[in-house]
Design goal:
three-stranded antiparallel sheet; single chain; alpha+beta; elongated; 59% helix
Length: 69
């Protein structure tokens, strides 16, 4: 399985979050980043995709509830 790594900047762009929120997510254990070969912190794309999917499911659930009202 090919595990793609993404930078902090790419992660923030994908999830549409600020650096502050990204650090919060790490502190809460929602997202795990590690020091790459340079100074840049990297994240697994697979983990980011899962967070994105979870968010989309929450949005869809909210839309479903609102449609029933």
């Amino acid at each position: 399985m090919n595990k793609r790594l993404v930078t902090k900047k790419e992660t923030m762009d994908i999830l549409h979050v600020s650096i502050t929120k990204l650090k919060e997510m790490e502190a809460k254990g929602i997202l795990v980043g590690v020091q790459g070969y340079g100074k840049e912190k990297v994240y697994m794309k697979e983990d980011i995709d899962k967070l994105e999917d979870d968010l989309c499911q929450k949005i869809q659930a909210t839309k479903d509830v609102l449609a029933r009202v």
